[in-house]
Design goal:
It is found in: Cytoplasm. GO terms for molecular function: dynein light intermediate chain binding; guanyl-nucleotide exchange factor activity; microtubule binding. It comes from Molossus molossus. Residues 238-261 have a biased composition (Polar residues). Helix 2 (16-22) packs across helix 9 (149-163), helix 4 (45-54) packs parallel to helix 5 (71-92) and helix 7 packs across helix 9. The chain is mainly alpha-helical. The protein is built from twelve helices and two strands; from the N terminus they run αααααβααααβααα. The chain has helices at residues 5-13, 16-22, 34-42, 45-54, 71-92, 104-109, 114-131, 137-144, 149-163, 182-215, 240-244, 251-260; strands at residues 95-97, 169-171. It has a single domain, classed as Actin-binding Protein, T-fimbrin, domain 1, CATH 1.10.418. The chain is globular and about 55 Å long. The termini are far apart. Helix content is 59%, strand content 2%.
Length: 261
């Protein structure tokens, strides 16, 4: 049986990630209007405001405050957001995002599709990872701890996707640890080789698309999937299945490690 858009929205808005975002209190619409709340998320205004609280360094960002369902304005806002997220991970946290970045073209063009909702979840996941590792992390974690235990457990699981899974986000500081065990170093090397091959494959695929478009007669270029469409989804790396089976700690036992990190 096909799932309706309203059902998809309801499931999405009940997720721990969205519950966490709502604690920031930036929404103009009431919580009763699912579509309005969701569109505020995908328009990128609220998420850019949250990101500026996490990382106030970007001071010259022109965020479009009135998207009014304009696809281009929505994509511009999301592009700024993803760029700032990537920069924060690299420059502040010394971490490299290995997972495919959120497909802002897909979100902007077709925000109400199930695939777009998965891409927005990816945005929220990366923002969450910034929040619990930034200078104000104690304040932001305390806010999470005000939520119910079940929601906290879901948020902890999401946090570990970006803090404990080197196939999603790679901690560059691991390369500077002097006493890395040989087996750990070997595993890291295999992982990096895997992702290097993936990047080469994606580069070659993009080159083929560019050549195909360039060879088509003027006026006959078909509309393609747009920038970033080749990087939808996350390609699981070696060892991902074993990590998926690792039992997660309870929220109470997890927050102490984030506070003290």
């Amino acid at each position: 049986m096909d799932v309706t858009v309203s059902e998809l929205l309801e499931l999405f808005l009940q997720s721990p990630l969205v519950t966490w975002v709502k604690t920031w209190g930036h929404f103009r619409s009431g919580n009763d209007d699912n579509l309005a709340v969701y569109m505020e998320l995908v328009d990128g205004i609220i998420l850019n405001q949250i990101m500026l609280q996490i990382d106030p360094r970007p001071t010259n960002q022109r965020i479009n405050q009135h998207v009014n369902n304009d696809v281009n304005l929505r994509i511009q806002n999301l592009t700024i957001l993803v760029r700032n997220i990537k920069t924060f991970y690299q420059e502040v946290l010394q971490q490299l995002i290995i997972m495919n970045l959120p497909n802002v073209w897909l979100i902007g063009k077709d925000p109400l599709s199930g695939k777009s909702m998965e891409e927005i979840k990816k945005v929220l996941l990366l923002v969450l990872g910034c929040a619990v590792q930034c200078e104000r992390k104690v304040e932001f974690i305390d806010r999470i701890q005000q939520l119910d235990i079940e929601t906290q457990a879901g948020i902890v699981a999401h946090i570990q996707e970006v803090t404990h899974n080197q196939e999603n986000v790679f901690d560059l500081q691991l390369l500077e640890v002097p006493d890395v065990a040989p087996e750990e170093l070997e595993a890291l090397s295999r992982n990096m080789v895997f992702h290097l091959r993936r990047l080469i494959d994606e580069r070659d695929e993009r080159m083929e698309v560019c050549l195909q478009v360039a060879q088509q007669p003027a006026g006959q270029v078909r509309e393609g999937p747009g920038p970033g469409a080749l990087v939808m989804g996350h390609s699981p790396g070696p060892g991902s299945s074993s990590q998926a089976c690792t039992p997660l700690p309870t929220p109470q036992s997890s927050w102490s490690s984030f506070h003290g990190g």
